[in-house]
Specification:
The protein has a four-stranded antiparallel β-sheet with strand order 1-4-5-6, with no helix packed on it. Strands 3-2-7 form a three-stranded antiparallel β-sheet, with no helix packed on it. 0% of the residues lie in helices and 47% in strands. It is mostly beta strands and 85 residues long.
Length: 85
């Protein structure tokens, strides 16, 4: 039984509705591997391919992928951090 969406291209930038930064968390013996700046997810029958903004490709079994983090860029504040001018 294959996945219902074979390729998920993710827009990275201000127009991205999901978030500007997408990080995948993958289990590894003794630690958790972070794959930052994921720009594309390709779903195969037994594994997933993660492509980063630097065109790096990582291949993992589905059971090793723990989850994803979607975060947006923080807005620049108009005022300083507590210091008067």
């Amino acid at each position: 039984m294959g996945p219902w969406v074979p390729v998920i291209p993710l827009k990275v930038g201000p127009s991205n509705a999901v978030g500007d930064k997408i990080t995948a968390f993958v289990s590894s013996p003794g630690e958790i591997l972070n794959v930052s700046r994921v720009s594309r997810v390709e779903l195969k029958d037994k594994f997933v391919i993660l492509q980063t903004a630097k065109d790096e490709r990582f291949v993992f079994a589905y059971e090793d992928v723990l989850g994803f983090k979607f975060s947006t860029a923080m807005n620049v504040k108009d005022r300083s951090a507590g210091f008067g001018r």
